[in-house]
Amino acid sequence: MSSFMKKTEEDMAQLKDSLETQKARNTQLETLVQQLAQSCNIQPDAMMELKQRMDELSNQADGQKTIAVAKFTKTSRQIRELDERMQRSERRSNMDSRKLMGLEMDVEHRFETAVIVAQEDLRHHHNMIQSKANEHTETLLKTVRAATTLLEPLYERVKPVELASIAFQMDDSIHPTLKIIDSKLNNLRFDVDTLGSGSDTEIVASVNFKKRLVAQEEGSGSVASTKIKETLTGLEEKSRDMINYVQSALANNPDEQKDSHANLANPSPEVEMTGVHPLVDSSNSMEQLHAIHQKQQQQVDLLPPQRTHQY
């Protein structure tokens, strides 16, 4: 734009110079003609011819002046149009700047809102998972306590076996006590199987819950979720160990049952001295069950506390 204006000004200056030069030439010609007319006796025809020539030169100068004025007018009009275009461009630029500022503020507001919403969702998701984990852990603890409560009367029901063994030792003949013992042992096995099936159900529920927890926490990699999964795995292993231990302690196989019958028929010195059959000595079993329960309680205590996010 500046180069165009500069070129236009240069053209206008050249036109002015050419007009001034032409006027100077005309003046010189007029002066020369007057000098010639004064110095010489020129005929009227020659004077008329010179006058016509001067008129033609004057007309040419007027034509050039008209052309120059037209060019000046056109240049001025173009300059005004360019000025108007520049003003419109400036107005559009200002409007675009305001729009960009508005868009930037809107994007920042939306981003802040999205961040706040995402943080709220994460906190709600974490609280929900923590609540579910606590509920399921409490359910497992209740199941372990119920299993311990059910096992205590089962061990109490083993005591009639001791009485039957003593009665059998006092009688040399074959006594139907063996059938009673078998019936008692079968009842104990049935109770243990019932307890084992209930524990298996709880373990299956724990596995399903852990799968859902893993699906919900996939990709997060948080320390809390890792501790929860490790705790649930430990609880499952402890529950299985408890069931296996109870089944191995009470649910005897046929070979062990034959050995128990042989021991009843031929009591060992330890049985005669203590008066307690090995099947009835459940103190170690109860201690081990209590130890397993305490380990599970310690494992549950390792669960991460519920954290509150500050925003």
Give a description of the structure.
The chain is an all-alpha fold and 311 residues long. It has 2 domains: 2-109; 125-301. It has 8 helices and no strands. It has helices at residues 2-39, 44-157, 159-170, 177-216, 223-250, 254-265, 269-274, 283-301. Helix 2 (44-157) packs antiparallel against helix 8 and helix 5 (223-250) packs antiparallel against helix 8. The radius of gyration is 58 Å and the shape is rod-shaped. Residues 252-258, 260-286 and 300-311 have low confidence and may be disordered.
User: Can you count the beta strands?
Assistant: 0
What's the SSE pattern? Answer: HHHHHHHH
- In percent, how helical is the residue content? over 70%
Determine the number of helices (DSSP H or I, runs of at least 4 residues). Answer: 8
Overall pLDDT, averaged? 69
Region (Disordered): 252-276, 290-311
Keywords: Coiled coil
Coiled coil: 5-92
Tags for this model:
coiled coil; 2 domains; mainly alpha; 86% helix
Give me a quick take on this structure:
Residues 252-276, 290-311 are annotated as: Disordered. The chain has helices at 2-39, 44-157, 159-170, 177-216, 223-250, 254-265, 269-274, 283-301.
